[in-house]
Design goal:
Layout: E1 2-3, H1 9-18, E2 24-28, H2 40-56, E3 62-64, H3 67-80, E4 86-89, H4 93-99, E5 104-109, H5 111-115, H6 117-130, E6 133-138, H7 142-147, H8 154-169, E7 174-177, H9 186-196, E8 202-204, H10 207-220, H11 241-244, E9 246-249, H12 258-262, E10 267-271, H13 275-286, E11 292-294
Helix pairs in contact: 1-10, 2-3, 4-6, 8-9
Protein name: Glutamate racemase
EC number: 5.1.1.3
Binding site for substrate: 3-4, 35-36, 67-68, 180-181
Length: 297
């Protein structure tokens, strides 16, 4: 799985919880971050390169743990890997439309995500089906600040106030966290909301849905690690992408070696920037110690 940086760790934690016997590769493309201020064509090209690296290192499935990369590259990745289970992430508009009480949903995301044709089509479809009104808010600079690692910084609070308070002032009672980085600042986000309104605000994060969808696709393709037979079998009957915010594709069966199926689960980190920084992110955000390598792609 890959993201422009450490944001995808918010998805990785759900995948590790639901699929504890799988071998995981995580690529933090921090040297190329942020994706959100780059043209879609550039993000698509970069996503292909990173995906190629992960496949070359043994990936049997791909998770695009980045909303921006999903918008920009999911089609080209599917075309390039038609026989591989592939899951992307997208803002949880459908669950948000179901959760809102007054029909007003705020969407926090990168500028590329909310400007993407795929996202806008999804918004229009769900608006027509539910009458929900989606208030779109790009959040320039927020990913950059989260990548720095000080999740309670004054800079992050200032940015959240700038982006969230106008949505609340417009009446939003539900907020979609449309970037995998944003769940890591929930504490500060909660403080900003509490200072701005006494209303109950629902927050939508689709990381758990992505993990469920990956489990479903691996199960359908016969690719689940055999270690799952001993316990912790994921629930493969849950709703799929359209109802959850997971964006997916699955092709024909992909061969997996016996060693890959039976060995103890591992987590390997890769980054296009600092291995030390990614190691600290693993420790600080997930509480784990994993080997990390710096690579050039």
């Amino acid at each position: 799985m890959f993201d422009s940086g450490v944001g995808g760790l918010s998805v990785l934690r759900h995948i590790r919880a639901q699929l504890p016997h799988e071998h995981l590769l995580y690529f933090a493309d921090s040297g190329f971050a942020p994706y959100g201020d780059k043209p879609e064509s550039v993000v698509a090209e970069r996503s292909l390169a990173v995906a190629g690296f992960l496949v070359a290192n043994g990936a049997k499935a791909l998770v695009v743990a980045c909303n921006t990369a999903t918008v920009a590259a999911i089609k080209v990745l599917r075309a390039h890997y038609p026989d591989m289970p592939l899951v992307g992430v997208e803002p949880g508009l459908k669950p948000a439309a179901a959760a809102t009480r007054n029909g007003k949903v705020g969407v926090l995301a990168t500028k590329v995500t909310i400007a993407g044709a795929k996202f806008l089509l999804l918004r229009d479809q769900i608006s027509a089906a539910s009458t929900a009104q989606f208030l779109l808010q790009g959040c320039p600079g927020l990913v950059d600040q989260i990548e720095l690692g000080d999740l309670g910084s004054a800079q992050i609070r200032t940015l959240l106030e700038r982006y969230v308070v106008p949505l609340l002032d417009q009446g939003a009672d539900t907020l979609v966290l449309g970037c995998t980085h944003y769940p890591f600042v929930l504490a500060t986000l909660g403080q900003v909301i509490a200072a701005a309104t006494s209303r109950d605000i629902v927050l939508i994060d689709t990381g758990d849905a992505v993990a469920r969808q990956l489990a479903r696709l691996l199960g359908a393709a016969g690719l689940l690690n055999q270690g799952n037979a001993a316990g912790a079998v994921p629930d493969l009957s849950r709703a799929a992408a359209g109802a959850t915010g997971a964006e997916s594709a699955a092709g024909s069966h992909v061969a997996v070696t016996a060693a890959g199926m039976g060995a103890a689960p591992t987590l390997q980190g890769y980054t296009s920037a600092s291995a030390t920084a990614l190691s600290l992110a693993f420790a600080n955000l997930l509480g784990i110690d994993a080997p990390v390598r710096e690579v050039v792609i």
